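Dear colleague,

As promised, here are the two records you asked about, laid out in our usual form so they can be pasted straight into your sheet.

NAME FIELD: protein one
SEQUENCE, THEN STRUCTURE:
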Amino acid sequence: MTKAETEKKKSLARTLYMAGLGQNEIADKVDVSRVTVSKWCNTESWKEARAAKNVTRPELVNKLLLTIDTLITQVNDSKDPTLVAGLGDKLAKLSAVIEKLDKKANVVDAIEVFMAFSKWIEFRSTVDPEVTPELIKAINKYQDLYITQQMGIK
């Protein structure tokens, strides 16, 4: 297999991995070994990229709101004065986090934009011959590099 063929298979494998497929299924579809897919996944931080891709700002805000609801329910059910006293501080901290998520541009914003752009460029590749697998690979490389640097990975 030539280097170009390997890179094309790796790019396809990454796309399938980011779409949520398992390594065994990817290996079958791309016609490489499961060990090869695992190596690509580990050396190029696909797992971290997929995890980051799946955490959106609305999901984070919803989880924080559920945490607030759980705290209030626990305090109301317990009738413990010490829990009641600490509730205000916990609520203030959680509210501050929600406010930061709503106002501050961060890695989650970049990931959301990169996800939308990746879907668009994937579609664009079906109608535009200038959008090659090599171009998509280069774009993915620099998006991943940006995100990992912003998150302090590597």
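NAME FIELD: protein two
SEQUENCE, THEN STRUCTURE:
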Amino acid sequence: MRFAVQNGLIEYNPATDIAGTVPTSKTKHRPALDFDRIPKLLSRIENYKGRPLTKLATELSLLIFIRSSELRFGRWNEIDFDRAIWTILAEREDIEGIKFAHRGAKMRTPHLVPLSRQAIEVLKQIYSFTGNQALIFTGDHNPKRAMSENTVNAALRTMGYDTKTEVCGHGFRTMACSALIESGLWSKDAVERQMSHQERNAIRAAYIHKAEHLNERQKMMQWWADFLNANKTKAVSPFDFANSSRAV
């Protein structure tokens, strides 16, 4: 409308009268657990009695905290066990009969996910179930289908969590990001790159869009897996675990 006024196409900009009448949408934060509740979460996952593949999907989701669609539509040919890395493509090949199977990394650029020793072990267990399929996570009743988008959240509800107020699968991302930052060990750029967040500053993005910080992120992902292991017996804060690691 401004363009139309400036170019003499109209005399008055009607959009001026509606400014401020539509409320700005509020960012919806996904629920995540406080650090002192992690031991209970790990115990509940360990004792989950549902479908084994669902339990493994929940474990892996916590370990690598990628987005739901990145996990659900993951392919075995994206996993490099020798290099311990998962390469999530910007766009995946379609799979006939599976809606949205082409979805890859949300930021539309390949996303590299370093795999900790614990994540590799979980993936090897998953391979024993679905290694003969293209998809890493297959459906409950049809191996040619993808795992449901509600699988991890449904498991968390079975474990006794309210996924609207306590913790949900996406909340694992919040927990991991918070722990990595609170540890004081890792650069902001490495954490942001691992979270696959888009740089909001266009000038800065132009300089760092190719920076992967891969060596640091490999150590960071192993630290997160070890931090979770340390919390299996009692709650340990990221800061305290980071300092105990330094001492060792």
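A couple of things worth noting about protein two: Strands lie at 79-80, 85-88, 111-114. The chain has one domain: 35-231.

Best,
R.
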